[in-house]
Design goal:
Helices cover 24% and strands 32% of the residues. The chain is an alpha+beta fold. Strands 1, 2, 3, 4, 5, 6, 7 and 8 form an eight-stranded antiparallel β-sheet that branches.
Length: 182
């Protein structure tokens, strides 16, 4: 039932824009390394072109995606319809991390509402798009965004966030350096 496309079509872009949640997957090259799969929300995803996307990434307890992208670039995004007609959309690509101070930061950051916990922007060049039925995805009702990350970041303050990133975000759980730790 799955269909493949070489780029993001307007119908895909419309579907992406309507979703409140997406998932990001990445993995190290080592077969002993851990596959990372993270949920994301907060109106943080943008389609930049039919073959390029970006998302605003906030400080978290790890920084696996950045480490994996630094090592091998592989990334997959998944969007599921939790309301309306069933659908799953996957974007396969090669990505990289953009940090504040990088040449791309001013242009990319202008596309997002900067959050107190903003850490980096992940950018990916998409080489394959897949849709599938989504018949097994349950229906859910969206009731709003959580404010925990913003409150946590405000309580930490700028110096506290930098200390937290230095402690938790410089290497992956498998010991791979992130762009913050490079």
């Amino acid at each position: 039932m799955g269909k493949f496309f070489d780029d993001i079509k307007p119908v895909h872009q419309d579907f992406i824009a309507a979703q409140k949640l997406f998932f990001v997957a990445s993995a190290p090259l080592s077969d002993q390394g851990h596959v990372n799969l993270s949920p994301k929300g907060l109106d943080s995803f943008r389609v930049l072109s039919p073959s390029k996307v970006a998302y605003l990434d906030i400080v978290g307890s790890g920084n696996e995606t950045s480490a994996h992208l630094r090592e091998n670039g592989r990334i997959t995004f998944m969007f599921c319809a939790f309301d309306g007609p069933p659908n799953i959309l996957r974007l396969y690509g090669k990505g990289y991390t953009v940090l504040p101070g990088d040449a791309e930061w001013p242009e990319l950051s202008a596309l997002f509402t900067m959050l107190p916990a903003t850490r980096q922007i992940i950018v990916a060049d998409i080489h394959k798009v897949q849709t599938s039925c989504g018949f097994g995805v349950p229906l859910y009702e969206y009731t709003g965004e959580r404010d925990h990350a913003a409150k946590w970041a405000e309580k930490k303050g700028p110096e506290g966030l930098e200390a937290y990133k230095a402690e938790k975000n410089l290497v992956s759980m498998d010991g791979l350096p992130t762009e913050l730790g490079a």
